[in-house]
Design goal:
Elements (H helix, E strand, L loop, with lengths): L1 H16 L3 H22 L4 E3 L8 E4 L3 E8 L9 E7 L12 H4 L2 H30 L7 H29 L12 E3 L1 H48 L1
Amino acid sequence: MLIVIIIIYNYCNKKMKNRSLAGNCGIAIFVIALVTVALAFGTPSWIVSDSRIRGNQLDRLGLWSHCFRSLPDPLDQYQRRFFVGCRWVYDPFTTGYDRIRGYLLPGFMIATQFFFTLCLLGVLISAILVLVFFLCCGPDQSRFVLIIKSIGYIMLGSGISGCIAVIVFACFANTEGWMPGHPNNYFGWSFGLGVVGSVACLVTASLFLTETNIQNKKRNRLKESQARFEMEHESKA
């Protein structure tokens, strides 16, 4: 076991020497972005209701699921139907749930889902490239710089998409006229993770684009030194 740990340590140490500080920090921040974006995408706590107040109709709300304590059907003027518990927003089995989907998913919510899904997809694609960058690639390979640049621009797109999603949600979600009990609702920890993840994507993008610039300069210096060596060798010959 100790031998395996030593081998892994030596391998990682060798790979770290092939990267600058920007590249190593970029990998660390990327892990934070991956975890926070994935958790924010899948957890139902973008808006939560104050648990101390018993009369609240909303419990918590996410991008893809809603949890209600007792939500009356907004389309039933006699309030004969109530929705209780947690459900997927596209639940096809609960009677009447499809009829209130327009209420559950107004335009800003669909926009938030769309842009945050783009953010997650970009992070997942980047995860594959980061693994290649971390485990397989070195400066001697022709596509080393291309992989780093691709990670930088994909994460930049992810960060912009994530920021659009959280800004739209922050501007329109917790306002009067949508979810019941507005004065007792507040942004939950899932929304906070979404904000952190979106910012982390932008930081990751800047670090990887910085790494691209550094590796390009190293390659240019190497080419110049090789050219000088060849000229000196030819002059001596």
